[in-house]
Specification:
7-stranded mixed β-sheet; 6-stranded antiparallel β-sheet; 22 helices; 22 strands; elongated
Length: 672
């Protein structure tokens, strides 16, 4: 399960030998490998049961029993277990020794030694015999093969469950939509919906695509995005997301994002890609595995020779018995599963909670964050500005100031610019065309309007700016023309989110381009630890670097173009889904619906996944630390006990099952 390995079609990883993960999660629904392993397991088990019966009882003459064991064990080992030999041979040829190297050698030694001893008993030295008979290991080879097949089957089934969260999202996607044309509602395939289409959404329907309500009212279940079960009221002008569920009312909507551009498609794509990434802690596990397999081979060889030359009679029999037990119990399958299983389940769980994490490395870093830097507008506040006041300087009138400002701001993507343009439209104030428009991130906008150079910048310190308002200054041909005041409100969720983040031990810092009065008022009301106001994007990045020097891992949360550099420079960049595309692309984590409480949940998820990985690695190592010496026979001088290779195979499978079960626990773990 090495994500850097990519090939066409299903197959096994050339490094670890495990099955490759499909890039498209939907492909996991047709699990051909699971069906193949299941068939091999069932037939192998059916043939192995009689071998055990023959070996434990005296139902036939010894020669007849041994002949029948050969006939039954051969298809179990050479057909049912063939994938293990195939992967083991590939590992030797590529010099990437893995669990299948040990399995194929262990089973191969037990089976082919027994086959040779059965066909040519006169060639076997007396030291290999017990009471004059040559011990055979057909039952061990068959049982080990069946147990390993069972472990592989359980692993494949469990891995299919790790994609359950994403496949449940796939099922939420609407298959059709009702388009309104000439007053008629016509059902069409979802693939035929185009941007600009007007669609009817009926009660109980999954909303087909992303868009805006144009007519009607309803309540929408958005738990797919936020994990919150409380429905959200929707009316004209409100955004709706494809895959969410319309409840009581009926409404018309205008399609704005379709196909692969919808939020649902983006979630599925991001999580699918993230599940294939590798966490830094996995690099440690890979290094250990790289040394572990050769070490086990050496231990197995040493075990054979020590028992063969210094053990009691039949010494060579004991040597083969214990060497095979060492090879089988030490298979590092649990070590290979420890990190990827936790990452896959954790990423899926994050998607269910409205937290999209770009890669496994970001998920691991998130647990180490001690300082969180946040933008104000759209992150702590709603970002839904409304023009409150216009102050004109002579000889300009208020309407002229608003007209000039709106003319330039109508091309801006900033929430303040949108609020000014919207206010002019509501008041039916004309907005002449603008030429040479230019946006300077974190500073303002400018352009030519009716031959005049119009510049809009954030206003600096001034006694006339109210503490609860943000002001922008308008200059025309280099002379001050007026001030425009816009208001914003703090998100209700921000109060609880700040409290929760403080409880997690985080230092909270607000860095904003807004004026100092407004910034200090918001910070004081929320209880932010430190505040920086009237900051440019470059200065924002410098502040972030200073905190990285002081505090180590620093996260940055924002939603605007002016946050993009800091989001990219942070150890973990956290973007709000309502933010600009460049902010989302620059970030490591995206919070759907822009709920700041998602940061706390993301940190809790990171801590839970990191803890789960460490638990898995403990399970993987403890089995080998205890099992290998016992398999080598360390207890024999004190207790006379040796570990049967079949028990070793069961213990090896049990270690994998415990890692899988522990990883799947993340699906039901309560994340706050």
């Amino acid at each position: 399960m090495h994500p850097e390995v990519i090939q066409q079609g299903p197959g096994s990883c050339p490094i670890c030998g495990m099955a490759l993960e499909p890039k498209d999660v939907a492909q996991q629904q047709d699990n051909a490998e699971y069906r193949d392993m299941s068939l091999r397991f069932r037939i192998g088990l059916l043939l192995t049961i009689p071998i055990l019966v023959l070996d434990m009882g005296n139902y036939l003459q010894p020669s007849q029993s041994q002949t029948l064991q050969v006939i039954l064990a051969t298809p179990v080992v050479l057909w049912a277990g063939w994938p293990f030999f195939e992967r083991g041979w590939k590992s030797i040829v590529s010099r990437q020794l893995n669990m299948f190297t040990l399995i194929s050698i262990g089973v191969g030694v037990a089976f082919f030694y027994s086959l040779f001893a059965r066909l040519f008993p006169q060639s076997i030295p007396e030291s290999f015999k017990y009471h004059g008979e040559v011990p055979l290991y057909f039952e061990s080879a068959a049982v080990i093969t069946v147990l390993v097949l069972m472990g592989q089957m359980l692993e494949l089934r469990a891995r299919a469950k790790t994609g359950a969260a994403i496949r449940s999202l796939l099922q939420k996607a609407a298959k059709s939509a009702f388009i309104v044309q000439n007053g008629e509602e016509i059902e069409i395939s979802i693939e035929d919906v185009k941007v600009g289409d007007v669609l009817r959404v009926r009660p109980g329907d999954n909303i087909p695509v992303d868009g805006t309500v144009t007519e009607g009212k309803s309540e929408v279940d958005e738990s797919m995005l936020t994990g919150e079960s409380i429905p959200v009221d929707k009316g004209p002008g409100d955004k709706v997301t494809g895959g969410t569920i319309n409840q009581s009312g009926s409404f018309l909507m205008k399609a704005e994002k379709v196909g692969n551009e919808t939020v649902l498609s983006r979630i599925i794509r991001m999580v699918s890609e993230a599940q294939r990434t590798k966490a830094p802690i996995q690099t440690f596990a890979d290094k250990v595995a790289g040394y572990f397999v050769p070490a086990v081979l050496l231990i197995a060889i040493a075990t054979f020779f020590i028992w063969a030359f210094f053990g009691p009679q039949p010494s060579f029999m004991y040597g083969v018995h214990n060497a095979v037990a060492v090879l089988i119990i030490a298979c590092p399958c649990a070590l290979g599963l420890a990190t990827p299983m936790s990452i896959m389940v954790g990423m899926g769980r994050g998607a269910e909670m409205g937290i999209l994490i770009k890669d496994a490395a970001a998920l691991e870093r998130l647990a180490k964050v001690k300082t969180l830097i946040m933008d104000k507008t759209g992150t702590l506040t709603e970002g839904k500005f409304k023009l409150a006041q216009v102050t004109a300087f002579a000889p300009w009138s208020e309407d002229e100031v608003l007209s000039l400002a709106a003319s330039v701001e109508q091309l801006s993507e900033h929430p303040i610019g949108k609020a000014i343009a919207r206010a002019a439209k509501e008041k039916n104030i004309p907005t002449p065309a603008v030429q040479n428009f230019k946006s300077i991130s974190g500073v303002g906008v400018e352009g030519m309007v009716n031959g005049r150079q119009v510049v809009i910048n954030m206003a600096g310190r001034s006694r006339i700016i109210p503490a609860d308002k943000t002001a922008v200054a308008l200059t025309v041909d280099g002379k001050a023309a007026g001030l425009l005041f816009v208001g914003d409100t703090i998100k209700k969720s921000s109060y609880e989110a700040v409290k929760e983040l403080h409880n997690k031990g985080l230092k909270l810092v607000m860095v904003t381009g807004d004026n100092e009065k407004t910034a200090n008022k918001v910070a004081s009301e929320l209880g932010i630890d430190q505040t920086y106001a009237e900051i440019t994007p470059e200065a924002k990045l410098n502040i972030l670097h200073e905190f990285q020097k002081q505090d180590g891992y620093v996260a940055m949360a924002g939603d605007g173009i002016n946050d993009a550099a800091a989001l990219a420079g942070a150890d973990v960049g956290i973007a709000m889904d309502h933010g600009t595309d460049v902010a989302i692309e620059s970030s490591d984590v995206t919070l759907l619906k822009g709920d700041l409480k998602g940061i706390g949940r993301a940190i809790s998820l990171s801590l839970a996944v990191t803890k789960n990985i460490k638990q898995n690695l403990f399970f993987a190592f403890i089995y080998n630390i205890i099992g290998v010496p016992i398999a080598a026979g360390i207890l024999f001088p004190f207790t006379g006990m040796l570990l049967n290779p079949m028990i070793a195979a069961f213990a090896m499978s049990l270690s994998s099952v415990s890692v899988i079960a522990n990883s799947l626990r993340l699906r039901i773990l309560k994340i706050k």
